[in-house]
Design goal:
With 618 residues, this protein is of the alpha/beta class. The protein has helices at residues 14-31, 37-52, 70-83, 88-118, 120-132, 134-139, 145-161, 165-179, 187-197, 201-227, 233-243, 257-267, 269-285, 287-306, 310-321, 334-351, 366-390, 395-428, 430-436, 441-447, 587-591, 597-601, and strands at residues 3-6, 9-12, 56-57, 456-460, 498-502, 513-514, 548-553, 571-580, 604-612.
């Protein structure tokens, strides 16, 4: 059995839904580029250090501040213990595949909960939107706490929909303690429902305490070992963001339009429908509002179209509609529908008003965008029937438009999502391809011809934020699990043959530093770290010592950001990949790929790997 029949129509089984969802998720694991340097330096780099030794450490991982949890990192690294792979690229993509598969499982659970609470029609459409969403395609394989919270948020909301309150409370606790503390916002409607509406405050308090103890005790134990002192990382990050000197306002301060544009790019028409969901729910659950809207339209059309007296018209309409309120006969689930929109509204009120805005901050409500849009689509026909009927649209045309609106919306959504995903891969996939080429036989065999080169320095200037992680640097010693096991011996040695080095550029914030080579490197307080994003000149490397250099070869230059590829006496281009030049490309066609047209209205620069001729001399 691959599906089941219900009174409201066909419904795929959860196992079938999982397989449908798994296809785009696995594609994302291999094709989605790392778009957020926070993912690289705050998560992949500590993971690399725990597994292989060596890697970059941000100020958040300094024991002085201890804002990030090593427990979160370890959860993602333990599957690699079973494989015992020594190939870092394989390890990188294996973690991404696991993240993608887990997200698909959580989506399947969320889909089942939607089917139980809202029925097959809404469940089927939600499944389609989840599977086809470019936003979910991007967020699912991301090694980020917000993606972790997105998955657990689906578990929490799905359990809430099915009245499994203990599961919902525990999922919120894991999400906020292990993942991202601010994801607890998703638990506000759950708490209000359990305490105020269900009147079960003791259940809520008891399970909050149980969940806190079960999650925080092992978390504190792990982080205390790695930081060398008692640490509750979620508390530290909340205190920093609320009471810190500069707090989050030091990074990524953007206007409100940033989130609106992001929503349109990643969800297109679905994002607009999701924003309309609160209004649609109120219209559907309060028939009087629909009635008022209908009266308003009748008056407006009559006065503007016929020039009659609006007073007489209003009296006639009210008399005609007396005792016959439109919408009163609809099957109304006011509380159910509000359960969909409440978490999204609360999240948007809090995060849309904060100065610091990042795309990843929206990840936890990405599934709610899909479900809210479906709710709007489900309720819209009744509202349009009123509006279009009053607007004097012919009956056959009106019925055709309303009956085909969901299908038309889904088709447009899927086409635009595919277009966006293709545009991202073509336009921004070059950095990961270039860094992967460091592991090619061509590069490795060439460097092996120079045994005197004991350390290979790969340098990067203005492109530091597109470094996908040290997992992309070759490893010749195949050292695994050095720091993870807190063991140091002649076998467990850090692999330092290939290093990434920073060149000074026009960026004047704080770059991450290298982890200490000390035995207890994670508990050593590093020098030259600050929590104010002040530039640390100690991070910069000498250009003449760079064996390779990665750069985006743009026409515009500055004294600190020259076109290195033009210095042919010093540098030789080894690898070249096209990368979108956003300044010279049309906004629409750089955001969405349109066959033939995109090639005409977009321009590309070369993303290059350069080899230092002066250091490789036979």
């Amino acid at each position: 059995m691959k599906s089941r029949k219900s009174s409201s129509g066909w419904l795929p089984l959860e196992s079938v839904a999982f397989r449908w969802l798994l296809v785009p998720r696995l594609l994302g694991a291999f094709l989605v580029h790392i778009s957020d340097c926070d993912e690289t330096y705050n998560y992949w780099e500590p993971a690399h250090h725990l597994l292989y030794g060596g890697g970059f450490q941000t100020w958040e991982y300094s024991p002085t501040y201890a804002l990030r949890s090593y427990g979160y990192i370890l959860i993602h690294m333990f599957p690699l213990l079973a494989t015992n792979t020594t190939n870092k690229l394989i390890a990188f993509y294996l973690v991404r595949v696991i993240l993608a598969a887990v997200c698909a499982l959580c989506e399947a659970y969320f889909y089942r909960a939607v089917a139980v609470r809202f029925g097959p029609v809404i469940a089927r459409r939600t499944l389609l939107l989840l599977a086809g969403s470019c936003g979910m395609y991007i967020a699912a394989p991301a090694f980020l706490p917000s993606s972790f919270s997105m998955c657990l948020g689906m578990i929490a909301l799905g359990a809430w929909f099915q009245r499994e309150y203990t599961v919902a409370i525990f999922a919120v606790a894991v999400s906020s303690l292990v993942g991202w503390p601010f994801s607890a916002v998703l638990g506000i409607p759950i708490a209000l429902d359990v305490v105020l509406y269900k009147r079960r405050p003791l259940l809520f308090i008891w399970w909050c305490l149980i969940s806190f103890v079960m999650v925080s005790v092992p978390l504190v134990a792990i982080d205390s070992v790695y930081y060398g002192r008692p640490v509750l990382a979620p508390l530290n990050i909340v205190l920093y963001n609320v009471f810190g000197k500069g707090g989050p306002n030091l990074y990524g301060v953007e206007p409100l339009s940033y989130y609106l544009i992001n929503g349109v790019l990643n969800f297109n028409v679905v994002f607009i429908l999701a924003l309309l969901a609160p209004l649609a729910v109120e219209f559907q659950t309060r028939p009087g509002i629909v009635h008022i809207l209908q009266v308003f339209w009748e008056v407006l059309i009559t006065v503007l179209g016929r020039g009659g007296s609006y007073v007489d018209t209003l009296k006639n309409i009210l008399s005609a509609y007396q005792g016959n309120v439109p919408g009163a006969g609809i099957f109304i689930r006011s509380r159910d529908y509000r359960k969909v929109v409440q978490p999204m509204i609360i999240w948007m009120i809090i995060f849309f008003t904060r100065p610091h805005k990042e795309e990843r901050f929206l990840f936890p409500i990405y599934p709610l965008f899909c479900l809210s849009a479906v709710v709007t689509l489900h309720l819209l026909p009744e509202i349009l029937t009123v509006v279009l009927g009053v607007a004097r649209m012919p009956r056959l045309l009106r019925r055709f438009f309303i009956s085909h609106l969901p299908t038309l919306t889904l088709v447009v959504f899927l086409l635009l999502s595919l277009s966006r995903a293709v545009a991202l891969h073509i336009g921004y996939g070059a950095p990961m391809d270039v860094y992967k080429s460091l592991n090619s036989h061509q590069i490795l065999s060439f460097t092996e011809q120079f045994p005197e080169v004991t350390e290979v320095n790969v340098c990067v200037g203005k492109e530091w934020h597109r470094f996908p992680s040290s997992f992309f640097l070759p490893n010749n010693k195949s050292v695994l699990f050095a720091s993870l096991l807190h063991i140091r011996s002649t076998f467990f040695l850090p692999n330092n043959k290939w290093n990434l080095r920073f060149l000074e550029s026009d960026f004047k914030g704080q770059l991450p530093g290298l982890y200490s080579r000390h035995d207890n490197s994670t508990s050593v307080i590093p020098d030259h770290m600050n929590d104010l994003n002040r530039e640390e000149p100690s991070r910069y490397f000498h250009l003449e010592k760079c064996h390779f250099l990665v750069d985006l070869d743009l026409p515009k230059t500055t004294p600190l950001q020259p076109r290195y590829s033009q210095d042919t006496g010093h540098w030789e281009t080894v690898v070249r990949r096209p990368f979108l030049d956003t300044r010279r490309s049309h906004r629409l066609f750089r955001a969405f790929y349109v066959p033939w047209l995109s090639a005409q209205y977009t321009h590309y620069a070369d993303y290059v790997l350069l080899r230092n001729k002066l250091l490789f001399v036979k």
